């Protein structure tokens, strides 16, 4: 549980720390290429890590009682919030970039960039809260 939660939360955090700042400062023509290439790796990986973290947390919660079980359930719920919000908010934006040839900008790219950045910062906070809950469950 801790391994998958750490990889999931860490993956989200590293995008926030390393990529968001760069993407904000990049010219649009560079941004659309870099963002699309990053999605190529992250889009399949992060949902898998999130699902493994949630599944292992459910197994842990079902096999424990008290505070550790409660923290595991809360962590699982937070991961669920991330997954659903990512499907509803980030995925439509990601798809707009994936549908185009590399280097092409979707309509409204500047607003998409701002929306995705704000969403990812919120997602990062929730991911860190989930990681804290799951780490607290095994402490």
UniProtKB/TrEMBL annotation:
<feature type="transmembrane region" description="Helical">
    <location>
        <begin position="121"/>
        <end position="138"/>
    </location>
</feature>
<dbReference type="InterPro" id="IPR013901">
    <property type="entry name" value="Anthrone_oxy"/>
</dbReference>
<feature type="transmembrane region" description="Helical">
    <location>
        <begin position="44"/>
        <end position="64"/>
    </location>
</feature>
<protein>
    <recommendedName>
        <fullName>DUF1772 domain-containing protein</fullName>
    </recommendedName>
</protein>
<feature type="transmembrane region" description="Helical">
    <location>
        <begin position="70"/>
        <end position="90"/>
    </location>
</feature>
<keyword id="KW-0472">Membrane</keyword>
<keyword id="KW-1133">Transmembrane helix</keyword>
<keyword id="KW-0812">Transmembrane</keyword>
<feature type="transmembrane region" description="Helical">
    <location>
        <begin position="6"/>
        <end position="23"/>
    </location>
</feature>
<dbReference type="Pfam" id="PF08592">
    <property type="entry name" value="Anthrone_oxy"/>
</dbReference>
């Amino acid at each position: 549980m801790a391994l998958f939660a750490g990889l999931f939360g860490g993956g989200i955090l590293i995008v926030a720390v390393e990529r968001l700042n760069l993407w904000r400062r990049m010219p649009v023509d560079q941004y659309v290429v870099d963002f699309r290439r990053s999605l190529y790796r992250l889009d399949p990986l992060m949902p898998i890590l999130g699902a493994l973290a949630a599944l292992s947390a459910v197994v842990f919660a079902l096999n424990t009682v008290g505070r550790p079980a409660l923290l595991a359930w809360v962590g699982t719920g937070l991961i669920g919030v991330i997954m659903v919000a990512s499907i509803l908010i980030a995925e439509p934006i990601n798809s707009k970039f994936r549908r185009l040839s590399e280097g092409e900008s979707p309509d409204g790219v500047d607003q998409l960039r701002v929306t995705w950045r704000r969403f990812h910062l919120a997602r990062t906070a929730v991911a860190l809260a989930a990681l804290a809950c799951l780490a607290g469950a095994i402490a």
